[in-house]
Every structure is written in structure tokens, then in C-alpha cells.
Amino acid sequence: MSAYRALNDGSLPEFLGSLPQVKELLGGEPAGWTVEEVGDGNLNLVFIVRSPKTAVVVKQALPYVRLVGDSWPLPLSRSYYEHMALVEQGKHAPKLVPKVYHFDRNLALIVMEYLSPHIIMRKGLIRGIEYPLFASHIAEFMAQTLFNTSPLATTASDHKRRIWAFADNIELCKITEDLVFTDPYRIAKLNHWTSPDLDEIAAQFRRDEPLKAAVQRRKLQFMTSAEALIHGDLHTGSIMLTPTDTRVIDPEFAFVGPMGFDVGAVIGNLLLAFYAQDGHEARVYARSPYRHWILMQVEQVWRLFSKRFIELWDKSKSGDAYMPELFQEPDGALAFAAEKQRFMRNLFVDTISFAGIKMIRRILGLAHTEDLESIEKPAMRAKCETKALTLARRLVIDAERLTGISDVTSAARAIHASS
Ligand code: SR1
Ligand code: MG
User: Fold this and answer.
1) What predicted TM-score, i.e. pTM, was given to this entire model?
2) Ligand closest to CA 252
3) What is the DSSP secondary-structure string of 78-137?
4) For ligand 1, atom 4, which residue shows the shortest CA distance?
């Protein structure tokens, strides 16, 4: 059993060489393997280890937040939750997550499939690349993982065991509770934004009582609702893809929480990418078709997800919640169908509200996104961010009044067109 130590390009080949399955996969001897550290996330080390035959990815948790340094300790156990979540998601959506080859709990390390030629979706969105299968893939991932880990599909006892299994991922949830739901609405040391351009808007958000009340309602939901095993950080940096293949990575924030938090993360991050396009186009309107494509993805993600979720529910006979035997033809079937529609409507409202909250944290909080951060001219960046914040606030405040996903894309378009 190995004690924790952060591995590096010197120690990693020898360690991987001691794992028979990984050694066989890579082939040859460790001395012939190369190591590249490629982690550009906020928390962990990520290595690509290449042999003449193939490659693997090694993700190792650090005992602190990489983005901030060792002044912010973070438990290594997040790697254990990430591994458990990858395994669970792999049961329900095997083609949509990376294969796991090895997990070492003491080293907080996961050896997994090297995805190539996949790139991080956020980078593809910055370059203006279209992914024709993305919406159906991510909808499938979310429908499968959220439905099948909820009591709509499982027994009450299995659900309680799942809640228990992830319940101690406390510090990762606390990051979300603080950085997503709290800090953007108060003076916090690590907050930053495009200054001075957004100083007044940031101050307005801190004084915005209806907005703060709505966000705190969602924070309570995040802390108390145990609907399904959620990924917990499903932004476009947690998706790697090609035009034909999509994989969801990095579920270290996983726990049993509200389903809308995952769906909202995808939609909120697509909307951030939409507003960032002005800062990436070579000339005005050059990215108009791409902006349109992104909004079509927002619509497709919700429509395909909700359709697939209902299909899974219609087929399922195993959940302890809403046992099908209670709803007999003809009246029962009608009542059950109406109840499913009501469930999806609530999930839509949750999704849209969480989407807005996720957008705000990426502009006024600690951890921003490359979509906006890579816009070099502050005035342009601030313009994109101001529009994104305008939509985001509306999504949080008006979620219940929006009749469907096309209301979201219409509002996004109208705000983009405003000066
Ligand atoms: C200090 S960690 C900042 C953010 O990075 C992760 O991707 C999560 O989104 C977290 O909130
Ligand atoms: Mg991550």
C-alpha cells in the first residue's frame, strides 16, 4: 500500500510499471514512456503518459486547490468520489465517459483512457467548432445518469445507500455552496471581475435583494434535495469531444443532489459561450451563424434530455417512487402522464435558474471561464459579460415565468442585439 505523494514525470512511469494491467496496456518498459503534465483545471494534476504503442491519462488530486495554492487545503477523498461516480455513470452511459483502468485510493489517483483526438469542449466553442452530435450525446448522458440514479428507477433503500455513499463529499459541495451560491453576492477576498468596467454591476448584484433571495432558495435546494447522483460540475470544461464522440470527465463534485444543477450547468455554460463569441469573431457578425448554432444546442439539449428522460421513465418498472401498479388504464395512465409533465416542468424551472446562477459565478466570482477570460480587450470582455449577466439575472428571477426553452433563447438573442 503506497502512502500519498504527488507523482511527477520522474516517479510516474515507475509507478505505472508496477501495475500489471496498465503496463500491459502501454507495452514495453517504463523507461520508454514519456510524461506530460497537462492539467489546466482548478484542482488537480493531470498527466498524459505515452508509450510507443498508446497512451493513458493519470489524474491525481493534490491536497490543496491548485488554482489558489496550499493556503486552501482540500481533501484527497475527492478522487475516491470521482472514481465512484465514473464507475456509476459508466454503468448507465458507458460510451459517454472515459474507461477507468486503475484507481489508487491512497495516492488519490485514477488511471484512465486517453481521449484522442478529443478536445475540451470549451476550447472548441472558442474556436467556433460545431459538434453535430453533442446535444444528443449530452442529453443521453444526463437522462441516463440522472434518471437511473434516482428513486424513479431504483428502490428507496438503494437510493438511501447512494446518498450515504456520497454524503461525505462535503468539502467539494462547500466549494459550490460558497463559490457559486454565496461569494458573488458579497464582498469576498477571491472574487474578481473585469474592473473597473463591471465594478458598478458587481455592486448592484450585491445589493439585489430579489436576486439574492432567489439564489439562496436554490442554495437551500442544492444542500437538501437528494434527487439523483449528479456530476456536480458539468460545465463545458468537463466535456471532451470530437464531432462524433462525446465524453463527460471530472465528476469529483458528485453527490446526490438536484438534477437541474447538472442540466443547468450545461445550458448556462453554452450561454456563456454564446455571449463570448463577439470577443472571438474576426469581424462583426462573422460568428452570427455560430451564435445561432449555440442557441440551437441550448434548445436541443433541453428538448432531447426531457424526451429521453420521459422515455426512460415510461419504460421503467423498477422505481419505488411512482410505482406503475398504482396507475391503471385509463384514468391512472392519464394522471401519471400529467404528473410526468409536471415533474419535467419543475425540472425545467430548476434547470434555468441554476443555469443563470452558474453564469453569474463565472463572471463575478473566483473561477472564471476561458471563453470570456481569453477576450483580450477589457472593454469587449466587459460588454460580453454585461450581456451575459443581464440574461443570467433574468433566468434566475423569471425562471417560473418562462414557458419553455425557446423563451430562453429568444431572451438571449434580444439581449445580445441590445447595445
Ligand atoms: C476552487 S475550485 C473552482 C471551481 O473549479 C471547479 O471546476 C468548480 O467549478 C469549482 O467551483
Ligand atoms: Mg473539473
Assistant:
1) 0.98
2) 2
3) HHHHHHHHHHHHHHH-GGGSPPEEEEETTTTEEEEEPP-S-EEHHHHHHHT---TTHHHH
4) 367
